User: Fold these one by one.
Assistant:
Number 1:
Amino acid sequence: MDKKYIVSPNPHIHANVSTTSIMRDVIIALCPAIVVSVLAYGWSELLVLAVSVLSCVLLEWAVTKWMMKRPSTVGDLSAVVTGLLLAMNLPSAISPWIVFVGAFVAICVAKLPFGGIGQNVFNPAITGRVFLLVSFPAQMTNWNPTPGFIPLPDAISGATPLSALKEALKSGSTIPQFMETNGYDLASFLWDAGASAGEISAGALLLGFVYLLIRRVVKPWIPIAVLGTMAIISAIFSGINPEVYTGVQFNLLTGGAMLGALFMATDYVTSPMSTLGGVIYGIGIGVIAMMIRYFGSYPEGMSFAILLMNCTVPLLNMWFHQKKYGRA
Amino acid sequence: MGKVTFSMGGVHPHDSKFAHGCAIEELPLPQTVYVSMAQHLGAPAKPLVAPGDKVLVGQVIAEPGGFISAFVHSPVSGTVKAIAPRQDLAGNFMMHVEIAVEGDEWDPAIDRSQDLVTAIPDDKAAILDKIKAAGVVGLGGATFPTHVKLSPPPGKVAECLILNGTECEPFLTSDHRIMVERPKEIVVGAAIMQKVLGGCPCVIGIEENKPDAIASMSAAVAELGYPNIRVQVLKKRYPQGGEKQLIDAVMHRQVKSGGLPIDVGAVVQNVATSLAVYEAVQKNMPLISNVLTITGDNIPVERQHNYHYRIGIPLSYIVEQAGGIPDTAAKLISGGPMMGKAISNLDATTVKGSSSVLYLSEAATRRQLETACIRCGKCADACPMGLEPFLLKRLYKAGDLDGLEQNAAQDCIECGCCLYSCPAHIPLLDHIRQAKGQVMGVIRARAAAAKAAAEAAKAAAEAKK
């Protein structure tokens, strides 16, 4: 043999998947929801998305290059996904510098200090979002819709359905009254006005998630556990007292339920490896989110629920393993 | 019966069976063959010939070197030139018998006609002796001596003979071709093994991507009319041809860790082994030849072949006969792309279990740079043994042998599904193979220590008397 041939152990072929291809699939899956939100909120939404993605990518590039002195991981597109998810959790009217602060917390606090991709304990986008929520409560709850490219039906100005409901309940009205005045119906499956990009259309998010399932990027168990738990809890409570507790449809279609269950809770790094662990993790998220919605002072609890359950992942990974062949 | 498959893990690589339409051709003989003494699992065989001896085709040239070992026969007629070490595929020096080819004279006891012999001898011991004397070993990859596998230990009963026609490795087509071209011989071989095992049912497992093989084997089963033999169609999924996976797919039973298939009543034999059993028992033909595939990605069909070869032929000669190494080839592999071995030495010779020479292009085979684990769990989803490769790799890096044993590193079958499916291109199997070796060492040392302690206690007890 004159020519040198490669000699290495098996396997000699590869499935042709990479971190980059997986992240690209997630970006594609987010596109329907992004398109809906840009149509609804116009240039301001585009600005928030652009600032968030650019900040995340540039921060990751700069920190890996100059502080960590290791090969840049920007090419794997995970910073783009973090940027998109962060932007989809913010009101379109928010000012760009606050978006940058959120991106900074996501990349430079939640992700890179732990060792970068694959090592972070908490979901970076949610950490950034929660930081902004407690630091800039006024700006983060200004849900006045910015002018979009197409007219929105029945916009509730200044509040998400969840926060409007919380206010209404505080002022003594009941849920049937709230529903009557605000006209919340099935159409909100497609349009959920007065919300962030990631919360506006449950239908668009589901469409993207189906793409991820078909591409075998994620498995459905965690979202089923999260949404199933939320549905069961709201069915029980609204069955007991429909005047005070909202029903199944309202809870699944409003706020961050869909975005959280489909795209945040399924984050590889911060969710358990085993199926059983994932189901327990999902149930935990559903219970905490519903408790905050019903009994907490915040109108929405998905972000806190996911962050809290992120803490349990190392334990769940230690306790629950996949079933092994030939071992009872 | 619907299509079945095994219950956990597995991957779906493109099957790339480009050579499945190439009929089996007889490979011409070279001037010299080098017959390895280590063509089977277990102890190497002991040469019985000396330089200068004349040998006939099919004459015994080496005897078993232990209980798990096998006879080796001369694949050619001619003169023994030397008995000397020579590098095998992996570059290890092994004893080889060098024979200069002179004509093609066969041992007269061998029936070389193509007539099908369907009458099966009655004496089980005689059948087993014939299989042993013919040097038959498992041709599915492990080359375990067949007569040992067909003699279950006392107290163990075979409940099902599974004939492995899955050929789940991409590219390989040799089993496919023999099932299409020699189905009746394979079925008679199965009936012989069935008889030796006491008449248990026999299931011939074939993956759905070989419809012509399924048709020809089903027709042969129906025509020959042996009782209790049937063809089972399996879904296409790698590594279905793994013994443990095939038992799971066909019998829905799982072999315990460290156990043998016979513990759950299963005996698995490859279809090529069945053909060898037929030839040994019905034709007195020792195992001196087999079928191998020459194929690869981006190779023109006219350069792809299924060759009927004699053992001991240097790979370089086969490659030359097939038109030389294609320019696109970056890696040469003996076996399939998932579990085959990279060829570092084309002077290595064919052995009983050779199944292919596979050319892979740089694009198909070059490993990508390793990046950070993103904990996607794809390796655990792909593992057909239900292991967690990401965890085993971490434990190995940390040197935690106890953790590795608890997490069953020793159960790894080295199928390559974990590395195949890892998006971060982490060389999981490379690490786990090392870990497995170390854990097996610990387990063996512990077993040896326990045995020694038991013997010491026994000796002490006897001394007291």
Note: The longest helix of chain B spans residues 428-464.
Number 2:
Amino acid sequence: MTSNIVLSEVEYNVVGKRHIRPDGVDKVTGRAQYGADVQLTGLLQGRVLRSPHAHARVISIDTSAAEAHPGVFAVVTAADLPFASLTRDDLGGDYQRLKFASNHVMASDKVLFKGHPVAAVAAESQHVAEEAINLIKVDYEVIPPSMTVRQAMEPDASLLHDDLFTSELGQLSDKPSNVASHMAFEAGDIDEGIKQADVVLEREFETASVHQGYIEPHNSTAFWNTDGQLNIWTSTQGPFVVRTNVADILRHPVSRVKVTPMEIGGGFGGKITAYLEPIAALLSKKSARPVKLLMSRTEVFEASGPAPGTWMKVKLGATSEGKITAADIFLAFEAGAYPGSPVMQGAACALACYDVPNARINGYDVVVNKPKTAAYRAPGSPQAAFAVESVIDEICEQLGVDPVEFRLRNASREGVRRVEGPVFRRIGLVECLEAARNHDHYKMPLNGPNQGRGIAAGFWFNRGFQSAVNISVNPDGTVNLIEGSVDIGGSRASIAQQAAETLGIAYEDVKPTVVDTDSIGYTMVTGGSRTTFATGWAAIEAAEDVKMQMVERAAKIWDTPVEDVEYADGALSHKSDPELRMTFRELARQLLGTGGGITGASNVDPTGEGNGFGVHLVDVEVDPDTGKVTILRYTAVQDAGKAIHPSYVEGQMQGGVVQGIGWALNEEYFFNDQGQMMNSSFLDYRMPTALDLPMIDTVIVEVANPGHPYGVRGVGEVPIVPPLPAIGCAISHAIGNRINRLPANPGAVLEAMG
Amino acid sequence: MEAVEYTTPKTVSEAVQAMASKGDRARALAGGTDLLVQLRGGRRSADLVVDVKDIPELNEISYSSSGGLTIGAAAPCYRIYQDAAVAANYPGLVDSASLIGSIQIQGRASLGGNLCNSAPSADAIPAMIALGAVANIAGPNGTRQVAVEDFCTGPGRNVLEPGEILVSINMPAPQASSGANYLRFIPRNEMDIAVAGVGSSVVLDGSGQNFVSGRISLASVAPTPVFCEAAGASLAGKPVSDEAIEEAARLAMEDAKPITDMRGTIRQRVHLVGVLTRRTLNNAIQRARGE
């Protein structure tokens, strides 16, 4: 009964086919090299001492016993970071930014979350390093923590930073505050829109802090050579971002920092920030030996970046015909210890699925005593969708309008202006809604008591940003493709496919390699659903560059003007002389003897990213005695523009759904009243297991993105947006009461049942 | 994890000797699914780890209709639930052994280890209590027997004295028209700790319509596994009915003294004790009737 459907309109030779991934064999045989596998001569093992308190002043740190411990080679604290010896005069307007960045890596005057690094040790073994950090004495003065946005926004709240002022429309507040910024979007006339409405609903929502839950913990190995060259091997989505962060925090020239991305065991947005790299580098500098740092799972939970917990209010008005007239939205997102929650993105995504004439969105970025939040798959959008889609679902119930029909009446389409300004180009939300309505799942009625069905739509911008690709032609007609995009979800294959398609050669003739930051041009993170789009674009441009040079070479060999030579279907031919024809391979064989090899190169920053939409259907059953929710059936529909590799698109869709199910049902940072996380293991931080999930059906809709040669839209993030509201609404229908707080774990559902 | 000494005795007396040599700084290791995690996580420390897996008595699984079932303290779950005599006579015990951890964990974890770890949430202990199990203990002063319901004394604490090890667990042969069942409630479907768990056993009369006796035990709702003597006793002599089951569930809920923590609230846990007592009693009755 389960199925994966691809609704294609355009067919290509290589693009759109399910090729074998180049990294597959190494990964399934365990040979792939991850960060923890890095071995170097003289390698030391490091360990980080972390704060046991959520909020405290650091009175003193005594490292003398650790330094004297046999087998210890170096001990570092925040005093070893360049920031410690820089002043406001040195840094000017950059002072607070660098202070936050440095203190995040290692706390100086205050610890702001449990797990905040305060010192680190490099030793001959893990055991010695562990003994040594236990010898470091830190004197703390504990301060009450501010753990939620509601607490932190109170006028008398415990302040994390005495020099953080609220940034509001370009102005700074008079008094320091935990509210780092207040932003607002407005369109139309909200009061008029509410007046036009026949039904107005106002609801309040909360979601908990959740973690990306990648299987591979953070790791970093650094070697600071005596000549100042700093080499770093790490698990990251963005080696160039790590290079920038490390150079910034350590005040070191970018050219002297080389970051080698190892294979990555998941990231989902959480492996962009540099956590361990600057510490490993400092330990290496002090010990003159390479140093490896590994996080435990507890450290990953406590000290890397979760997605923010939120507090949201949505007021929505609609006519009895089911047309939205107004939306008034309040979003307060936890930033964690330092400013920078994705509330701006949440605000921009909140209403993106709909053409809302009158709207107002207020967003607040609020610091709390939790680890600094990081990106997590469509950052900000799932929470905002939970609030908005849940209210739409309730309006549909009240009006007696079919929820897909309601969404079709209000759906964003080409030409609609979003609340924050941009106008949509060709998008595929309507097609997704229609595909959902036509799906067997939607037509099949529920078949038992305590069951409910939920439907929700979701949006993510998808990003462009910078990518670089080099393609060198080998004498046997194969090519080496060099890229800077770390391969998380099959991008070696999807980038190679676009190069092969453009060159008119076989997929197997393209060998893609991900290289270090010295070996390719600037490439932004693998994230933002940008890689297949933007690095794919770079591959296409590099391939076009190869084609141009191949044409020039053929013209040279044939002693004919370049204009006479044509490149098509992987072969070069003379436009008027049918005798003159060479395949790509035949010309490749002659290159070295006719002027040297050919390398095509590109550096791109494409702006034609295609916005992404998805529509999800889910059926649940609730145990009326225990409140436990079983997912009976799940169907995800999404516009991929063009699925370069359909299997990996389906994998992204299913993976996003799985993480969304976890977020909706059981995942949650659970803190005690001192702000200490109590469930920092996969035992009690409950991500779904294989036994908790049905097979997830997918439908790939292909509405070509006009901004990409093959019509690609990003696909990685959209699928985590609809599950929160879809599941919340399904449970609401099953139990007859609304679910307005996530996770909807059994205890919460039991309470909601009354 | 700190360095520890490790030894593999081949007999019970060697094991006792080794344990006694380090007093409370020695820990017995069977499957290691609790101990190794605790040592690595710094939640327990030890100077000596005594691996008891090489001792024949601790690997025994034997059944006779007169002597009942003997399970060596180190016998892993998979051997218990794959044993034909256990499967035929103690389905209530199989319920526990087959839901502890995961398939991989069950390849190592033992019921003896589950008992000695003495977690309030232990999945095997309520089933053993419901089945009237007795723990056989060996120590420097010889052997002794302790009813499983009297074994645990607090979270992670039990009656074992320094130098003592658990050798085996005995369960009487099942009576005619008897049945048992263990259920736990977890938010997921595997790899989880019970929010609440209930083990129930019943003996019915020849007609299958009346309770002769019953035993009920709870997990995760007190500092130790709870033996609900009154709840089980309330069934004796009553006709099998929703009212009798409801009364037993009510009494079991009275015995539940849970706390609120990250795994559940007091209210939820007490409620779940009622739900699971009803469900396990109904399942035990079906098994007693051979349905």
Note: Chain A has a mean pLDDT of 97.
